[in-house]
Predict the 3D structure of the following.
Amino acid sequence: MTATAPRSHRGLFVTLEGIEGAGKSTQVKTVVAYLQAQGRIVIETREPGGTAVGEAIRSLLLQPSPTPMEPDTELLLMFAARAEHVNKLIEPALVSGQCVVSDRFTEASYAYQGGGRNVPGARIAVLEDLVQGALRPDLTLLLDAPVPMALNRARQRDRTPDRFESEAAGFFEAVRQAYLDLAQRAPERIRVVDATAAPAAVANEIRTQLGRLLGSP
C-alpha cells in the first residue's frame, strides 16, 4: 500500500479521462502548459505506461488480438502497470513537490473494465486501495463527447486501431456512462468538460478549472 506525504509538502496530481476521440492527448498539453506558467515543475505521463514495466504492459494490453482477453486479466494488468507507475513515478514526484499530469488513471479502470467489461466495482475498489492507498488525483478532467462524434475523431487517426479502439460503439456507450456516473458521485474532484466544443474553447474551460484548483481568480 502506498503511503502519502502531508498535503502541504506535495505537488498536484491532475488526470484527464474520456473515451477515445474525446481529445485528452491534445488537452494534456494545455494542463502542462498552464501549470508550468504558474511556476510549477510538471511531469507528463500516461496510463497504462509511465515506466519501463508499464510501457511493456501497455503494448500487451493494446495489441489487437483475435482472441479476447479475459476481463479480470485486463484489469489485473492495468493495476500491475499502475502499481509501477504510482511507486516509481507518481508518488516520488508528488512527494518532491512536483506536479504530475496523467493521461488516464484509475477512473479509466472503473469506466473501461467496470462499465465496458462488467467487472464489479467492488473488485476494482479492492485493487485501487491495494495499489494506491490514500492516493487520489487532486483534479480529474473528464472530457465528454457523444460516442459517434468521439469515435469519428478517433478513426481519422493515421494508424491501425488498437484493441480498445476496435471495440463497438455499444462498448463505448457503456464506458461513457460509467465515466459520467463517477463524475456525478464525486463532483468536487471530477469535473466534466464539454469536449464537443472547439479545442480552444475546451482549453479555456480546462484553464478555468485549473485556476479554481489553484485558487486563482
Observations:
- The longest strand covers residues 139-144.
- The chain has one domain: 7-214.
- The beta strands are 13-17, 42-46, 99-103, 139-144, 190-194.
- The two ends are 37 Å apart (CA to CA).
